[in-house]
Amino acid sequence: MSAQKNINKRGGTDKVKKQKALAFTKSGTKSNKDKPKTRSNKGQSADKKDINFLVPPKGMRDILPSDAPPRDKVVEVSRRMAEFYDFSEINTPVLEKIELFKRGVGEKTDIGGKEMYTLKTKGGDHLALRPEGTAPVVRAYLQHGMHKLPQPQKFYYFGPFFRHERPQAGRYRQLWQVGLEIIGGESDPVYDAQIIVMFYRVLEELKVGAPAVNINSIGCRVCRPGYRGKLVTYYKEKDVCKDCKERLMENPLRVLDCKNEQCQPFKAEAPSILDSLCSACRSHLKQVLEYLEELGLPYFINPTLVRGLDYYNRTVFEIFPEGESLALVAGGRYDYLAEMLGGRPTPAGGAAMGVDRVVDLMQEKNPKFFQTRIKKKIFLVHIGELAKKRSLSLMEDFRKSNIPMRTSFGKDSLSNQLADANKDGSDMALILGQKEVYEDTIIIRNMETGVQETVPFSRVVEEVKKKLKS
Ligand code: HAM
């Protein structure tokens, strides 16, 4: 059969059949019309269960192909930044021993406690889906004796993390982070500033609005206990919420993080940690701020900024998109974490960026950006078995020239394949029918204008290259 046939302007034929719309509702469940009818209640609940199987667990979601461009961009910009600053990629397992997070993040914290997804293996190991990346990276640093390498060691990572939080906008149960960690060497404030500036520049490049840096120091082993005492004394008489009553017993600094209306007036009048810092911590914070000023980075000192993980000391910071309340980046110094995990004293600092939140913002701020087509699309249409075989080797030629191409190999009819090419927004279709195979030619069709030309098969790659350049 020849490929030369009555074809309308955008490539479809008059015979193009309308595909039946899939009988799925927006949420991915089948419409009532298509549900198998069941007689008993028992049957109905089994049916319901099957349908629930078709949606992911609460708070988790599919990352669809259309979501890939902004995510790729986030990773590409972060990777470029990390490699410029001499960070190396590290990948730790998604599952770790529960104990790592209990000790590292803190059993009494939300992230290292009630929000962890845990399981017991058939062999009896108690494991957790990693809720964060810092404790695993320090674990790997200790396990592989990386303290023997030049210090500090600098790492970056990208991957999924899991927290059984209440799902809401910008808060997912499977979340993705890009993380940076600087481990070993000195507790040097310059590293704190470097981490902040790296993420700040990444956010600038991703155009998610002016980033606002909130920074604080939560002191060290020397000065924090004194401040903790002052805070407990101050709050003792106050009518705080139930959660804060617990926090005062377990981790008093966390009362400063309370979002409950009832506690806000007390927070505003609470003693400031900045008045309790020892001279070493005060000078550390002063130097971090001086480095930020040197780099021209605006910041806001927030004395009530504390973090939800136990391993921090001295610098803590969060970066927000202008006018928004969910942090895009958060981190700080964690000089004691290696010791908490049984290692030697190892100064360290780092931060992580919430990829999902950044991507949500990128899509909101610049929806058109990711719809722009970067490459022209080529669709290979075959008619008949002989043409199909020839198409396979033709694809190899295009692969060698690094020109991507689409096909509908499962379909044999010209009209169906052209309809696919059309739906796909292809710029060009290469049409190969039996006649063309016998004559050693191929048709190049401009999908926009409908203009077709027949070229020798041996020259098709060259011809397509020329057209891609024009
Ligand atoms: P984190 O504050 O728990 O810190 O998380 C870092 C960032 O991950 C947050 O600022 C936010 O953008 C994003 N994120 C957190 N939870 C969620 C969620 N449920 N859904 C979507 N995004 C979320 C850490 O994880 C520390 N390990 C950071 C660090 C690295 N500190 C030192 N080094």
Summarize the structure.
Helices cover 35% and strands 18% of the residues. The chain has 470 residues and is of the alpha+beta class. The chain folds into 2 domains: 65-223 and 277-365, Bira Bifunctional Protein, Domain 2 (BirA Bifunctional Protein, domain 2, 2-Layer Sandwich); 378-469, Rossmann fold (3-Layer(aba) Sandwich), CATH 3.40.50.
Can you give a write-up of this model?
- By secondary structure, the protein is α+β, with helices and mostly antiparallel strands.
- It has two domains: 65-223 and 277-365, 2-Layer Sandwich (BirA Bifunctional Protein, domain 2); 378-469, Rossmann fold (3-Layer(aba) Sandwich), CATH 3.40.50.800.
- The chain has helices at residues 41-52, 68-84, 98-106, 134-143, 189-205, 224-236, 242-250, 264-269, 279-294, 337-340, 355-365, 385-400, 414-423, 434-439, 460-469, and strands spanning 88-89, 95-97, 118-120, 126-129, 153-162, 174-183, 211-217, 299-301, 313-321, 329-333, 348-354, 378-382, 406-407, 428-432, 441-446, 452-456.
- The chain has an eight-stranded mixed β-sheet, with helices on both faces. The protein has a five-stranded mixed β-sheet with strand order 13-12-14-15-16, sandwiched between helices.
- A hairpin with a 5-residue loop joins strand 3 and strand 4.
- Residues 1-44 have low confidence and may be disordered.
- Histidyl-adenosine monophosphate is lined by residues 111, 132-134, 163, 165, 170-172, 175, 177, 179, 181, 327-332, 334, 350-352, 354, 356-357.
